[in-house]
Amino acid sequence: MPKVDRRLVAISGIGSAFGLAIARRFLSAGANVHGCDCDPAGLAEAAALGCHVAEVDLVDRPAARAWIARVEHDAGRAIDVLVNNAGGVAGQSHQRFDRVSDADWDTVIAVNLGAAMALSQAALGGMTRAGRGAIVNIASGAALRASMTGIQAYATAKHALLGLTRQLAHEFGPHGIRVNAVAPGLVITNAATQQQWQGYGDAGQDAILGGIALRRLGTPDDIARAVSFLASDDADFITGEILSVDGGR
Ligand SMILES: NC(=O)c1ccc[n+]([C@@H]2O[C@H](COP(=O)([O-])OP(=O)(O)OC[C@H]3O[C@@H](n4cnc5c(N)ncnc54)[C@H](O)[C@@H]3O)[C@@H](O)[C@H]2O)c1
Prior knowledge:
It is a single chain. The protein is an alpha/beta fold. It has a single domain (about 10-185, about 220-245), classed as Rossmann fold, CATH 3.40.50.720. Helices cover about 45% and strands about 15% of the residues. It is built from 8 helices and 7 strands; from the N terminus they run βαβαβαβαβαβαααβ. It has helices at about 15-30, 40-50, 60-75, 100-130, 150-170, 190-200, 200-210, 220-230; strands at about 10, 30-35, 50-55, 80-85, 135-140, 175-185, 240-245. The chain has a 7-stranded parallel beta sheet, with helices on both faces. Helix 1 links the parallel strand 1 and strand 2. About 45% of the residues are buried. The chain binds nicotinamide-adenine-dinucleotide. Nicotinamide-adenine-dinucleotide (NAD) binds near residues 37, 58, 140 and 189. Its EC number is 1.1.1.-. This is SDR family NAD(P)-dependent oxidoreductase.
């Protein structure tokens, strides 16, 4: 396990499958883990693991920034690691592009991109003063090509998250801060991904698995291991990188 002990770690969307797996990974290394989510059940799971949790609607960017300030205040120090994991499709499914409403578009952009912008902006002040820090953004295969979900705003937001990753890496590298992204392939984590997977049918599922070099779907732990590596000192000369964790395509 890469060294992340005693670090102050903040994870958005901590109540999701990836969020909980990432939290377990950091907790097992002795980190002080804080997380936020809008889902009380997920937050309760994270609290039971030993995380400090807060209910925050990350579409509200001032509220997102205020949560970072509270974490820093409570811990009495700058955040060492920020994981921008909150995101997803906000309960949406593919619609013809001419039928996509402004509200649906804005929600997906806000949770996948706006939240990462606000949380990073808030955390980078303390990281800059400390002269160190790491941000890991959870992107997607939909950041690199069209999304299997067919949701235009999701692909757009995840592509833009890579732009934010590279730009912040460039701007904050001189301050000792690294910014990287993990791009997971499909992992069955919730009702939406379960429904997506079942929708492919047997032949479609075989075709997807046949296109993956390692011939399996990923797990939340696969993603968590990549995140903890990028956050750790083992990756201390890696920044602005996009690490696909998809079994090879
Ligand atoms: N599961 C996959 O196949 C897959 C693949 C690629 C990328 N991802 C990305 O990984 C991340 C985690 O996904 P997941 O599959 O674990 O489950 P998920 O998509 O359900 O996770 C999203 C988490 O963010 C939280 N969230 C959503 N909107 C929020 C808001 N407005 N305020 C606060 N929290 C909010 C949700 O409650 C949930 O806990 C997401 O960014 C997702 O886009 C997932």
